[in-house]
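Dock flavin-adenine dinucleotide; give full complex structure.
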Amino acid sequence: MTICSNKNPTRLADTLYDDMWLPEETIKVRQQVRKFADEVLRPIAHELNTTPEDVEKFPWELTKKMGEAGLFAIPFEKEVGGAGLEFPTLATMVMLEEIAYVSSGVAAALIDVQLILFGNTLKHAQESVKKELFPKLISGDIVGSFATSEPAASTDLSVRALQTIATKVDGGYKINGRKRWITNSPVAHHMFVLCKQGDAMSMLLVDMNSDGASVGEPDKKMGNYCQLTADVYFEDVFVPDSNLVGIEGKGLKAALTSLTLGRVGIGACGVGMAQAAFDFSADYMKQREVFGKPLSQFQYWQFKWAGYASELENARNLYIKAALINDKRRPNVQGMCAMAKLIGSTLPGDIARDAIQVCGGYGFVKELAGDGRQFPLEAIYRDCKIGEIYEGANEVQRMVIARQIFGR
Ligand SMILES: Cc1cc2nc3c(=O)[nH]c(=O)nc-3n(C[C@H](O)[C@H](O)[C@H](O)COP(=O)(O)OP(=O)(O)OC[C@H]3O[C@@H](n4cnc5c(N)ncnc54)[C@H](O)[C@@H]3O)c2cc1C
């Protein structure tokens, strides 16, 4: 009997659910990204998901291949070199689900941060900057970062808490301060930085080769190893006027617009991870016999998996609906995005915990020394936890939803 390993999971979502609500163009994106994830990402995913943070191991080649395969064009309009889809947010979220099914770290670093936080903010930059950076972003030639968090400010992004300061000087601004936890920062070419300016905040784009900009060693984290984060230091870093994003003093609005979209992305990533844990362990339960019958014949586990199948569909529908609300510019974006994140980021932890339990040692192990087989659940369990914390902790998502019920 073969006890399943990381290679070919049975894609249960294809038979359990129906993508009937998805437009044709989104279904095509799902197929395109899945093919890429299976053929290009899967062969290197185990190493990416289990090798601790190391700048030397950043997947540059994968980044370039994602660009060449057209994945980085999916969220953007034709005018900036993008795919020009009718529902770009929806397609981006489906792409995140498909990539996170194989590697949560890649989905977070190279799509959620690179395309949603960095790419979406770039849409609000000045024309000269857009003209220069969009082609490089879409081809996979540059890596971007988005910095709001600091050692003492993250959930609370008030002027009182923020310590990174931009001072107006001739022809631009000087930035002084320190950011923390900044995804991609050890390898980033450009970074959007939220700065305090008197009683307001502005968003500035920093060329990371500028004098006075430096990045620390990558943090050693619980999971998402290939999503490198670090502290970033700014000492009198000059930023030209042309790198101001949107309106001076309205930087928080620019940041929150991208973060709201990012939240849907975290929900979609969670669905990808949850589905991966679900599929792997369902395969396992059909193969593994205890007391003379497969684990899949025990009603205890059947009932659990029936419940998870329903919750997965629920979480998927939520992120799809939140994405469509964004694309159709309908009201109540905030509440739906918060729900998509809250539900989508909680589910993978629940499923992964039970998936590890039912797979026993094969759930807990990364690599079996006896025959070298690789197993995915250990990484999923570690990787999914951060989804409940970043881009607005889930308590904050509950606050956003509660405000819609009870008012501010
Ligand atoms: C892997 C990783 C990648 C990241 N990438 C980036 C990035 O690219 N750019 C960036 O700017 N930041 C990034 N961050 C920062 C991330 O967004 C913050 O860690 C997150 O917002 C939480 O902030 P904090 O860690 O400072 O915790 P705090 O703000 O101190 O919050 C701690 C906890 O307090 C609780 N809490 C907060 N507010 C409330 C409330 N109102 N009611 C009840 N409970 C509450 C929540 O449980 C929360 O988790 C990243 C962090 C990690 C770990």
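Observed: Residues 113, 146-149, 154-155, 181-183, 221, 224, 227, 229, 386, 389-391, 393, 395-396, 399 surround flavin-adenine dinucleotide (CB under 6 Å).
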